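Input record (one chain):
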Amino acid sequence: MSTGPIDIADIKRRMQGAISVLRTELSGLRTGRASASLLEPIQVNAYGSNMPLNQVASVNVPEPRLLSVQVWDRGMVAAVEKAIRDSNLGLNPQTEGQVLRVRIPELTQDRRLELVKVAHKYSEAARVSVRHVRRDGLDIIKKAEKDGEMSSDDLDRLAEQVQKATDQSIADIDQVVAAKEKEILAV
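The corresponding structure, as predicted from the sequence alone:
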């Protein structure tokens, strides 16, 4: 079925993209438990350029509060250690040959509350992105009606579909953030 000048599936895909970005940002928030995704955003100065950590080392979680970073090139150990220290994650790796051991310290209640605020900031940015997609979709629909490409009834039907997709995406964002907040506040 053709929906006229707007593709509802494309609107939904763009809204899901905002949720996907939110999940990625939230995975980088420390929750007091070791997670390999914690080190994903770290860039290492390697071979004359910045590279993601996972392209110069493998990250394992041998214990709930410990990360093990196996550096593949012995010459890169110092660069990886420096990148982890400088990452503003508050982590202090210990070097044992080509393996870096990164202990995950306990989070204080104040730090947990700060992380919840950061999670809510990320969720608001995702909501704004979803609202921008909705606005773009509604603008396309209104322009098509103004140009005589669709009737007023079609405009109302498509606008309702766009709003339903928006409401569903906002509900998904709230659900993702609530789960992360629960994870952060768990002691």
